[in-house]
Design brief:
single chain; 199 residues; alpha/beta; Rossmann fold; 7 strands; 38% helix; globular; binds adenosine monophosphate
Amino acid sequence: MSTPQKNVRRICVFCASSTKVDGIYSSAAEDLGRIFAENGITTVHGAGAGGLMGSLTKGCLSAGGKVVGVIPQFMVDLEWLHSGLSETIIVDTMHQRKEQMVKNTDAVVALPGGTGTLEELLEVITMKRLGLYFKPIIIVNINGFFNHLLAQFDFMAENKMMKEKHLAMWQVVPTADRVLPAIIDDTGWDRNAREFAVV
Ligand code: AMP
């Protein structure tokens, strides 16, 4: 096993693009951005202007933090890009976007979101199972939003679609203020993950 994370400088956040979500979710995203900024951590996300990406950016920038957005050209053409980010990386494809978002980050965090967020979260979980990713994955279960997904994960393990120990690939926290402590305390992922990837 590897050791706890000491240097946390850059964190990737997957979250909703929807602008219609309840304030409980946008407040959590804003809190998370502020907390990262106060701790000198750069936030990386999908560069969307609205939804939880927008709230995260607002919290971060208003506390003097840095936000890096990664977005494909077609979304820029659709005018979905947040114009005030600290840095914008424009890519060609959605696949390149995911790769760039996660690259050189010290952890990934999933806030509530739709299929885009789920897809991003599940890809990084899949990479971890296959020994292609070793950093902490934190699921922020605001308002019990991820309860059904977590139940599905348990059901997968019960049905031998993955091992019980795969359920340790992520940590679940209830609120934004628990994200950084969870990342710092994370005990790491087994470097020999491929030896037990297959059930
Ligand atoms: P979702 O969780 O389905 O709202 O999707 C969030 C993810 O979908 C983002 O990280 C982006 O990959 C993409 N996405 C969908 N709509 C937008 C948008 N309006 N602006 C930026 N990214 C978006």
